[in-house]
Amino acid sequence: MEYSNSSNADPQSCLEIAMEVHRVVPPPHESTLRKLKTTLKETFFPDDPLRQFKGQPTRKKWVLAAQYIFPILQWGPDYSLKLLKSDVVSGLTIASLAIPQGISYAKLANLPPIVGLYSSFVPPLVYAVLGSSRDLAVGPVSIASLILGSMLTQEVSPVNDPVLFLQLAFTTTFFAGFFQASLGFLRLGFIIDFLSKATLIGFMAGAAIIVSLQQLKALLGITHFTKKMGLVPVLSSVFHNTNEWSWQTILMGSCFLVFLLVARHVSIKKPRLFWVSAGAPLVSVILSTLLVFAFKAQHHGISIIGKLQEGLNPPSWNMLQFHGSHLGLSIKTGIVTGIISLTEGIAVGRTFAALKNYKVDGNKEMMAIGLMNMVGSSTSCYVTTGAFSRSAVNHNAGAKTAVSNIVMSVTVMVTLLFLMPLFQYTPNVVLGAIIVSAVVGLIDIPAACQIWKIDKFDFIVMLCAFFGVIFISVQDGLAIAVGISIFKILLQITRPKTVMLGNIPGTDIFRDVHHYKESMKIPGFLILSIEAPINFANSTYLNERVLRWIEEYEAEDHKKQSSLRFVIFEMSAVSGIDTSGTSFFKELKKTVETKGAELVLVNPLGEVMEKLQKSDETGEFMRPDCLFLTVGEAVATLSATIKV
Amino acid sequence: MEYSNSSNADPQSCLEIAMEVHRVVPPPHESTLRKLKTTLKETFFPDDPLRQFKGQPTRKKWVLAAQYIFPILQWGPDYSLKLLKSDVVSGLTIASLAIPQGISYAKLANLPPIVGLYSSFVPPLVYAVLGSSRDLAVGPVSIASLILGSMLTQEVSPVNDPVLFLQLAFTTTFFAGFFQASLGFLRLGFIIDFLSKATLIGFMAGAAIIVSLQQLKALLGITHFTKKMGLVPVLSSVFHNTNEWSWQTILMGSCFLVFLLVARHVSIKKPRLFWVSAGAPLVSVILSTLLVFAFKAQHHGISIIGKLQEGLNPPSWNMLQFHGSHLGLSIKTGIVTGIISLTEGIAVGRTFAALKNYKVDGNKEMMAIGLMNMVGSSTSCYVTTGAFSRSAVNHNAGAKTAVSNIVMSVTVMVTLLFLMPLFQYTPNVVLGAIIVSAVVGLIDIPAACQIWKIDKFDFIVMLCAFFGVIFISVQDGLAIAVGISIFKILLQITRPKTVMLGNIPGTDIFRDVHHYKESMKIPGFLILSIEAPINFANSTYLNERVLRWIEEYEAEDHKKQSSLRFVIFEMSAVSGIDTSGTSFFKELKKTVETKGAELVLVNPLGEVMEKLQKSDETGEFMRPDCLFLTVGEAVATLSATIKV
């Protein structure tokens, strides 16, 4: 109290004090409009995509713009025979994977097998022109197929009403593409960031198990199988139909499953032998088809695909349905499959771009994938994206550019035109084995262990996603995990950390007294650091917490006989403030003063300082004896005042 | 590059370097369980309510516990005649306000007027025993009444089905109380913090306008009035029924409205004359009743309340409906009215507690208000809480303890027992005028201006709440405003600020180069400060943003010919990290190293350091030459290495 009296009596003295130390200055003035512009730019254009256009002549700008929209124009002119050789090898490799997987995944989505091949023909061509990743292998993927199939089956039966089901699948694909392209166009790509790595690992593992369970139908040769997806109904369906199990199917399935898993294992151990796992599915299809054909196994309990029509993708824009009672379902399914396939595509693109040290523009990729699906929806394709497993094979096989997608596409085209009759005798059990061996790779146990080690809460989120997918449903499991992740962020905001700082002896550094045991409290000073923006969600809490700090100080203080003189707030970590935050400081100032102490702020950042200044009619916060640039300077200056 | 070679060649040297400066040490080890305990304690018990029990003898603990649950035991024993005198004066004053307001607000909720008086009798008694605020005047409030009435009217007509409507109102009150008590019991009181001050100001102003518009029915004497709440339907209803306007009603209404508003204005200007505005409603009721009685005005177009039954609250627990088709509506309405009335009650309690320098425990208050409503729901009361206006009158009238609530309650009891017939001739138009004059105070234009001055975004939130309430609906307006507030917090997390630091000449202080114009960049160093926890929602953005910083540095650098050697991250403001955040640092380290530079971390906080350490098998991040306690020390030490 003497201190504040003396400083009131002699205003000169506090100016002198302020001169000795480094002044805290308000940030340079900026108009509201300019601040808004900066904020919008940072929010929507953090990568500053127009940077390269700056200071270029107009003609060059046009070229750059064309290259920006069609990345093929960037690398196309420099394309060489050497690159082509690599791309042909990798293109053929992924085609040998894409054909059996295409057929299998279409069955997973309850669609005719040929739609899977259609989807491996058109979308890769579109992506080759628009996409900026050099390693992405485009085509249908297991999880998006599963979700599309399961969500649409809720309202329409693919068996009783196959045409309507197909129409809804194409409409869903259109909405998925439209949603993806819009996210990219509106620069809202950050929405997919809300699917954290932990969520995805749990989700993928859960989905892999759900997908594998569905394959028990094909692997055991069961004809009456549940339409539900959950763990419980599927297992009960399996064990209530033991009379339908077919030993021939089980034998064949087990043999090929073991073969595929061994091939996978070999390629994981020796990446040079990538072609072992890449070729295994096609080899399995050919071998099993020959076996069935030779032994007429279709008459001995082994179900086969049956006759497939020849020919390229028929147009399907007339099948899109933008009205009717199922529109809501199509949109919902489109958004869920769109976001899931986008997450996979972008993550794959980024992973390989980082490996080869080039950049993939997230928002541009979203537009490319979105347009690819929109085009796909009018050419009899369903949702496609860049698949993890196939892109890895593509990368290992030495793909250099998107030409490998074109090679794959042409191979699929040849298959569609001439080879379709050959698949007539392919047994469904082998397709099931191919799916299981593909999705096994989605269960990433080492990553789960790593998450457990680093962050227990992330592990809980992962488990929620996993069990949610297995026991509730694919989309609900995902929603629960995302909800919990966001709840955690909000909780962190609601309960920001406040720590007490102490002086590290022999320096003017102040650090957390709990973390740095050697740091010492300064008698008469309570130095607190707040580590979050202060806003409506936490100002009440902070008020209570700070009062508790003060009361605890006073309780200790009772023994030490040195009364509290200054409460110093280290504000370096307070990155923002709102009107509730400014009220918090006003109230706190009053409370601290009733305790006979003074509130001192250290290093408020630009925006925080500006708002405190505006909320503060009396200029109380901005008094130079209440505002310092470092804790060290504040303590040094204010200790001197106590002695006076 | 030479630097990292030399340190590899001579590991001794980097140890020496580390010895010169202050070591960054990992925080003291804590088990997961202990950390969980601390986190839970900070989240749910920030005020540490059990602190006072520590170290007390068992008997004392029991006394303290009883006092904790029933605050009346705290102040009751010291109660004196002097305090009683103050409390009687203030109790009678608020009773004179509570009786007309009770009748009016019950009509606002489409309930029989007598329910408003019932609600001013039992709940204040319950609160007096359980509540910890000394100034709260308990009773029905305008906004909760409006919401309850409008939400229930959506499904049940109060005119055609009054008994069911009453049953639903009591059931809603029960759920509101149950929800409030649960929030308190589960220590989830922070949920009401999500209604920020800006949201509340916009919401209150919008609700005041909606409430006033509803009074046009009574003020203009219209008989066929819309059942909707929005601005547009009400105004259209008013101007389509001009033939029903009654000049006698309008004349009487205007006179009393002017009288009430003038009385309000007098009390605002001179708080000593609080009794002018406090007594005005009762005076209006008495005067207008006498006028109607004298002139038989009910036969001249002025509608009156009509016969009211005498007697105390009948029990109503048999009217609570926990099944049936309207259960969902009751629960929903209960949650909305519960949260709104809780917000008002807690805010009022805190405001007056701060004025008189005592503490109100938020969670305990919630339980008190919740229990009060649960008891109320079985004694014919509807939702009640502490009202802003009445508590202010209570405070100004000199209330010292909750006894003023008991005095008010007894006065209301006397009224219920003996005075009800006197209200038979009270005209509805005066009740309308009383409501309008009460809710006018909810429109706080100076606060809105202040918000505009300090924070433009908060202002937008406020406008959303305001226009949402006026044009859409009370509950949707509120939901939109809360949604936008949370979206803003999430956006802040998704796009954390990164700033470049420079050295303030003549010191070892490093600050934002944009804010402190005199600060200088150090050649060869890029010093960045991240001002948010790093998690899944922002790690992708941060990666892009940091790359842009590096590229911008290199572009500048091209001119300066001093290549980038160290990227220093000031981590003091990074309050938390998750698995995505640790991956971000791992990737960033690689990227920085491919650019020929070194990643250096400064002052990572306890939790962040621990997780980085766990995620880092090779010990790369924890090397003493990559980890410093202050930026100044890092730059000093590393500059020396460059010269070597």
Automatic annotation (TrEMBL), chains A, B:
<dbReference type="Pfam" id="PF01740">
    <property type="entry name" value="STAS"/>
</dbReference>
<dbReference type="InterPro" id="IPR018045">
    <property type="entry name" value="S04_transporter_CS"/>
</dbReference>
<dbReference type="InterPro" id="IPR036513">
    <property type="entry name" value="STAS_dom_sf"/>
</dbReference>
<feature type="transmembrane region" description="Helical">
    <location>
        <begin position="459"/>
        <end position="487"/>
    </location>
</feature>
<keyword id="KW-0764">Sulfate transport</keyword>
<keyword id="KW-0812">Transmembrane</keyword>
<dbReference type="InterPro" id="IPR002645">
    <property type="entry name" value="STAS_dom"/>
</dbReference>
<feature type="domain" description="STAS">
    <location>
        <begin position="515"/>
        <end position="638"/>
    </location>
</feature>
<keyword id="KW-0769">Symport</keyword>
<feature type="transmembrane region" description="Helical">
    <location>
        <begin position="164"/>
        <end position="186"/>
    </location>
</feature>
<feature type="transmembrane region" description="Helical">
    <location>
        <begin position="274"/>
        <end position="295"/>
    </location>
</feature>
<feature type="transmembrane region" description="Helical">
    <location>
        <begin position="245"/>
        <end position="262"/>
    </location>
</feature>
<keyword id="KW-0813">Transport</keyword>
<dbReference type="InterPro" id="IPR001902">
    <property type="entry name" value="SLC26A/SulP_fam"/>
</dbReference>
<feature type="transmembrane region" description="Helical">
    <location>
        <begin position="198"/>
        <end position="225"/>
    </location>
</feature>
<dbReference type="InterPro" id="IPR011547">
    <property type="entry name" value="SLC26A/SulP_dom"/>
</dbReference>
<keyword id="KW-0472">Membrane</keyword>
<dbReference type="Pfam" id="PF00916">
    <property type="entry name" value="Sulfate_transp"/>
</dbReference>
<keyword id="KW-1133">Transmembrane helix</keyword>
<feature type="transmembrane region" description="Helical">
    <location>
        <begin position="429"/>
        <end position="447"/>
    </location>
</feature>
<feature type="transmembrane region" description="Helical">
    <location>
        <begin position="401"/>
        <end position="423"/>
    </location>
</feature>
<protein>
    <recommendedName>
        <fullName>STAS domain-containing protein</fullName>
    </recommendedName>
</protein>
